[in-house]
Design goal:
With 389 residues, this protein is an alpha+beta fold. The protein has helices at 13-18, 37-45, 80-92, 98-116, 123-140, 144-151, 164-183, 189-195, 205-218, 221-236, 238-246, 251-262, 293-296, 331-348, and strands at residues 21-26, 29-34, 121-122, 197-198, 201-202, 267-272, 276-278, 281-283, 287-292, 349-363, 368-382. The chain has 14 helices and 11 strands. It is globular.
Length: 389
């Protein structure tokens, strides 16, 4: 099975070179996709022209039919954005604490050890979803019993299944968490929100739900795709695993390259309050445009041989976590998960053999883009013990 990163050519390459923009219909509406690296970064900084103040419409496809609350701080512009972001930052910064790093590394070692004891493991549902869910519990200072619930949610809290009932179920679950936190507060993220203030006042329940919604929706399928994409690549390219094993200091650069090459978020939406012109394409006032991170991360004017996964690529100014004001709050956590995975694979796994795979492909009117796997079954072979002396 070929590595999903290489299974198809960059679907945005020709439009990026020729026009810098690609108009694709999403939910029946034409949306100009901004494709070039410099243009994406400039648009991400220009919140007056390209606004995030668009409740339920920032993700593409939009989520009016699956949730009722504005996700915070994703769907708000400066200056309010800074205050909302400051509420959540302390918990996201926990990803840098030695005790959290140690817990996530121990979690990865446990999952890899279990996989090594089996003839086969299905990576998406038996490895990546448990890793994402339990690592999130570490970040949020929540018990593993809650992670057991999250594991049952599948790859996406909205988009897997009918969406609508899942969205209502998520808000019901979140309300239960906040009720419990208010009656018996602890040191977890949800209790922290019940004590937090914005502009000198307590958060409303709707605001708390907005934080909870993005916490579970924003870093779920993206981290799952990153985990399965890394394992699929190392299975198809065993020399890269050996390269990392030779010098673990290479893992940091390698992790950044995997985020660039996989680009787990294809794009994100922005609303143009006064309209905009993008390389001759007009966006009407109030209409959506897309910041296409996946295209920007393969812009050959910035990344030599962008179709190649170069684990020593440096500099690597990718925009896999966005850019500017809305740089992803969960970036440190995603990096911790992927680096911990790479470290453990180097230490414990000698070979990864793909037994079966079904690619996940984002199929749209104007492009098809591989996004890791629907399923990936592999065999992990233990690394031979190193000779003594």
């Amino acid at each position: 099975m070929p590595c999903p990163i290489h299974s198809q050519p960059d679907p945005f390459r020709e439009a990026r070179r020729k026009d810098g923009v690609l108009v694709n219909k999403f939910q029946g509406n034409p949306v100009p996709m901004i494709l070039r690296h410099e243009d994406v970064r400039n648009a991400a900084k220009d919140w007056q022209t390209f606004s995030s103040d668009a409740p339920l419409r920032v993700p593409i496809p939009s989520e009016e039919d699956v949730r009722t609350v504005r996700q915070l701080p994703l769907e708000i512009d400066p200056p309010e954005h800074g205050g909302y972001r400051a509420v959540a930052e302390p918990f996201f910064n926990r990803a840098k604490l030695p005790e959290v790093v140690a817990r996530v590394e121990a979690l990865v070692r446990s999952l890899v050890a279990d996989a090594l004891g089996r003839e086969a493991v299905e990576i998406v549902r038996e490895f990546a979803i448990p890793l994402q869910s339990r690592a999130l519990a570490c970040l949020l200072n929540m018990p593993d019993s809650e992670a057991d619930i999250w594991i049952g949610w599948g790859t996406h809290v909205f988009r897997e299944g009918d969406g609508k009932s899942k969205g209502a179920a998520l808000e019901k679950y979140l309300n239960g968490l906040f009720d419990r936190a208010e009656s018996a507060p602890g040191d977890d993220f949800f209790s922290g929100l019940t004590r937090a203030t914005f502009c000198g006042r307590p958060l409303t329940r709707e605001e708390m739900l907005g934080y909870g919604s993005i916490m579970f929706a924003g870093g779920r399928d993206t981290v799952i795709n990153s985990i399965s994409g890394v394992i699929g690549h190392l299975s198809a390219n065993p020399a890269d695993l050996e390269y990392l094993r030779e010098d673990p200091k290479r893992i940091v650069n390698a992790g950044e390259e995997f985020f660039r090459a996989i680009s787990p978020v294809t794009h994100i939406g922005r609303v143009c309050p006064a309209g905009a012109e993008i390389h001759g394409v007009h966006a009407a006032p109030g209409s959506l445009v897309s910041l296409c991170f996946a295209s920007a991360n393969h812009d050959e004017s910035v990344f030599p041989a962008p179709e190649e996964v170069r684990l020593d690529r440096k500099p690597n100014p990718h925009v896999a976590f966005g850019f500017g004001t809305h740089l992803c709050l969960g970036a440190a956590h995603a990096r911790l998960v992927v680096r911990s995975l790479l470290k453990c694979l180097c230490e414990q796994v000698g070979q990864i053999t793909t037994l079966a795979a079904e690619e996940k492909v984002e199929r749209e009117e104007r492009y098809d883009r591989p996004l890791a796997y629907e399923s990936l079954t592999v065999r992990f072979t233990a690394r031979p013990p190193r000779p003594r002396g």
